Amino acid sequence: MKDSHQTIGVFVRPTHYQNPLFEKLERAKKWVLKLLEDEGFESFMIDSLDGAKDERLIEKAYAFLCLGGDGTILGALRMTHSYNKPCFGVRIGNLGFLSAVELNGLKGFLQDLKQGKIKLEEHLALEGRIGKTSFYAINEIVIAKKKALGVLDIQAYVGHTPFNTYKGDGLIIATPLGSTAYNLSAHGPIVHALSQSYILTPLCDFSLTQRPLVLGAEFCLNFCAHEDALVVIDGQATYDLKANQPLYIQKSPTTTKLLQKNSRDYFKVLKEKLLWGESPSKKR
After folding, report:
1. Please, which residues have CB within 8 angstroms of residue 6's CB and are 6 or more apart in sequence?
2. What is the pLDDT of residues 106-162, one digit of tens each?
3. Is 153 a catalytic residue?
4. pLDDT confidence of residue 261
5. Which of 9, 88, 94, 195 is deepest in the core (most CB within 10 A)?
6. Which of 3, 54, 70, 240 is catalytic?
7. Residues linked to residue 198 through DSSP beta bridges, in sequence order
8. How far apart are CA 58 and CA 45, in angstroms?
9. Which long-range contacts (CB under 8 A, 24 or more apart) does 185-194 make?
10. Which residue, 131, 135, 130, 145, is CA-closest to 233?
11. Do residues 229 and 152 make contact, with C-beta atoms less than 8 angstroms apart?
12. Between helices 106-114 and 22-38, what is the axis angle to 10°?
């Protein structure tokens, strides 16, 4: 058997046959597995979000190739986070903010990977806990209303010290990597992806004085809602938060690891994806 430095796991989120990308993904999966073999890698495929089921396979891999969009990468990063494995994205789909390469650039990326010409980016991740249930978040943790009507009151603490009460539709607690995701849509600030901080952005707050807040990641945070709420992880997983039950959030001791091309420039990516300096109506 080849050693783990030559083993690449291929992660593909389950896709329904009616999805417009279904046929493209099916063709791409076969092509990627063949390319990995041709380039001298051992590979296996995971098409499930059940990390426990695939524990032995995850431990075997050096890195994970995520075939799809940013959602696919986020799912893989959360599933492999506690195993301390890096991932890299091959974009098939929409924005691809986290992706390392397009499909047609994968061969060159793999050759660079073999030669050690790829950089490893380590990003802050969040570790959350509700009661005895713990979880990781790569982009953000959102506290959201369960009911469409009314206002959700969320008391926020740094350690045991209360510092704010948010009254509105909810609150986003984002990582710098996730600052360009839901946080950006909610008019939160863009924070450099390699920073060590939390971004707290209120959702439709009742008070006009509330503004997004950036805090150093050395703090431990906790939040309590005055009524039952939902806790949403990276837009992909949900947990129930009972009224007055604390949600604890801190910096994960394990970083989020992404493999990227040496030539990748964060500011160039921002300019390209957000169309900075161009007319918003201009198509790329």
Report:
1. 40, 41, 42, 62
2. 999 999 999 999 999 999 999 999 999 999 999 999 999 998 889 999 999 999 999
3. no
4. 96
5. 88
6. 70
7. 215
8. 10
9. 187/212, 188/212, 189/214, 190/270, 192/266, 193/121, 193/123, 193/266, 194/121, 194/122, 194/123, 194/266
10. 135
11. yes
12. 30
Token readout for 245 is: 């039950």
Rounded CA-CA distance 252/229 in Å is: 23
Structure tokens at 218: 């050395």
Model confidence pLDDT, tens digit, residues 194-239 = 999 999 999 999 988 899 999 999 999 999 999 999 999 999 999 9
